[in-house]
Amino acid sequence: MKEIKFASYSRKDDLFEEILGSLIVKCPGIHDEVHLARTFDSLMRKLSHNPRYGKINWSEEETHFLISIIAYHCLIHGSNFHAMVMFSSMRLFL
Question: What's the rounded Cα separation, in Å, for the pair 21 and 27?
């Protein structure tokens, strides 16, 4: 597996702890890369079995997956996750 260079945090655990500490929803932790890939495969398999499936709410699995994706995005690109949320919230009111 290719080694990923992280932008602004000296340790990925520091960022992950900061993100988890600021969440309102319960999240047991950020998935590692292997678990992230398995979860993606599982979610895609469910979607491919029923492509017309419409949902209103996200499952816990999907929520944890999204949080993990955002955490890795922030880690790799040096993005501030607070700014990402604020930007998205501001666009709702425009």
Answer: 10
pLDDT digits (tens, 9 = 90+) for 17-46: 888 787 777 778 888 889 999 999 998 888
CA 91 to CA 77: how far, in whole Å?
A: 22
- This model's pTM is above 0.90: no
| Residue 65 · residue 31 · CB < 8 Å | yes
Q: Is 78 left (phi over 0), alpha (psi -120 to 50) or beta?
A: left
Rounded CA-CA distance 19/92 in Å is 22
Torsion 83-27-18-69 (CA) sign: negative
**Token output for 37:** 């890939």
- The encoded tokens of residue 79 equal 């993005």
